[in-house]
Every structure is written in structure tokens, then in C-alpha cells.
Specification:
Blueprint lengths: L1 E5 L3 H13 L3 E5 L2 H10 L4 E4 L2 E2 L2 E2 H10 L6 E5 L4 H10 L3 E4 L4 H18 L3 E3 L5 E3 L6 E3 L2 E2 L4 H12 L7 H7 L11 H13 L4 E4 L3 E4 L7
Helix pairs in contact: 6-8
């Protein structure tokens, strides 16, 4: 599961990422509100760990924007603002949980796992393709086709997750390449085309469409269309 850590302090951000990675999470990071919003728009994330004091905006405003757009992604706030009123402000803005700094690492992991489990219990996989027979779960990045689980390599699963998170909007080849760079550091220039071709072979040609001049997009199943 992929977690986004958002904090403008590089040392603290690195420490959080290492702690979460040691606990088995796939971790991304951002140091600004704009970077965080870009990740949330384009990546398949299970949760966000969010500091409030960001250089280009307040974390509470960022949460409000996400909730206004209908995003139900679990958000765990980590902040030095720890008074009861400040905690209440965070929860009223749409945060799912609030942990003050300094914090205990074990408590952070326990709260984060609880948030993800609660979200997963309510999560509905996203149906793809012309007939909706391909189901992708944004929480655990699992894929099913009909009644069968589809095994994909970590790279293909990541590519599909990025496309699904874009909710049908085109994703450029450059952005896709950037999102899998940690998995495919030596990938060739035409690697994205190869990954998309393999996904089409596994899931059906209609599942991913080419958008000329913009990149690729998944076909979201729309009943009755």
C-alpha cells in the first residue's frame, strides 16, 4: 500500500518515510501543498500523513479542497498544533485522525493501520473497460477480472494504479515514467509503450486508450452508457 508523507522539514520527512517503509508500506513524499495535491490527483494512495505548516499553504485548507472534490482518502494529521481547539479544527476540516508532535512511532503506525483498514472496509473497487469486468482496488492495488485475481508485476500494477487514480483523465508518458522510476531505473525510452501493451494484453485492449498528444487513460465502466 502506498502512503504519502507531507512535511516541509526534510529530516523529519525522511525519518517518517524510513519508518513507514520498515513497516512494509510503499512510501512517497512531498514538501509542499502543491506537490501533495499533485500526488493525490495522480497516484493510487491508501492514506496521507500530513503536516499542517507547509510553505505554500495551510494543510487544513488542503484537506478542505480534497473533501470539496469528493476525495475520501484517509488523512492523518501530524502537527505541533496540539491544543484541543486546534485538534478540533483539524477534524472539522475533514482529517480522519490527528496526532500531535512529538509523537511515538508505534502509535503513528497503529493509527495509520486503523485508518486504512476502516477505509478498505468501505471501499468499492473501480470497474474498468467496456463491460466493467476489470476491477481495480485503489487501497491495495489488487486487480480482478471476472472472478479471477490478475497477477501483475509491481511495475504494471503501479502504471495501472496511476492511470486509475487519474479517473479517466489522460496521463502523460513522462509522468508515468517518473512514477515508476524507483522500480525501473534503467527503463528504455519506449518502456511506457511496452507496459501499456502488456496491460492491454492482460486486461483487454479497451481498458486503456491512447489520447493523441496527451498520453494514456483508463476506460471507466459506466453502466447504461
Amino acid at each position: 500500500m502506498r502512503i504519502l508523507v507531507v512535511d516541509d522539514e526534510p529530516a523529519l520527512r525522511l525519518g517518517l518515510c524510513e519508518q513507514l517503509q520498515a513497516a512494509g508500506f510503499d512510501v512517497e513524499s512531498a514538501g509542499t501543498a502543491d506537490e501533495a495535491d499533485t500526488w493525490v490527483r495522480a497516484a493510487a494512495l491508501a492514506a496521507v500523513v500530513l503536516d499542517l505548516g507547509l510553505p505554500d499553504g495551510d494543510g487544513l485548507d488542503l484537506i478542505r479542497r480534497w473533501r470539496h472534490r469528493g476525495l475520501q482518502l484517509p488523512v492523518l494529521v501530524l502537527s505541533a498544533r496540539g491544543t484541543p481547539d486546534e485538534r478540533a479544527d483539524g477534524l472539522e476540516a475533514g482529517a480522519n485522525d490527528y496526532l500531535g508532535k512529538p509523537f511515538h512511532g508505534r502509535e503513528l503506525l497503529a493509527r495509520l493501520r486503523r485508518l486504512i483498514q476502516g477505509s478498505a472496509s468501505l471501499h468499492e473497487p473501480i470497474a474498468l473497460g467496456a463491460v466493467g469486468d476489470v476491477l481495480f482496488d485503489l487501497v491495495d492495488e489488487s486487480v480482478r477480472q471476472g472472478d479471477e485475481a490478475v497477477r501483475l508485476s509491481p511495475t504494471l500494477r503501479r502504471v495501472l494504479g496511476v492511470l486509475v487514480a487519474a479517473r479517466g483523465r489522460p496521463v502523460s508518458k513522462a509522468y508515468l515514467m517518473d512514477q515508476v522510476r524507483d522500480l525501473e531505473a534503467a527503463a528504455s525510452d519506449n518502456a511506457v509503450e511496452q507496459w501499456v501493451r502488456r496491460l492491454r494484453q492482460r486486461l483487454g485492449a479497451a481498458t486503456i486508450v491512447t489520447v493523441p498528444g496527451q498520453g494514456y487513460a483508463v476506460t471507466l465502466f459506466r453502466p447504461g452508457s
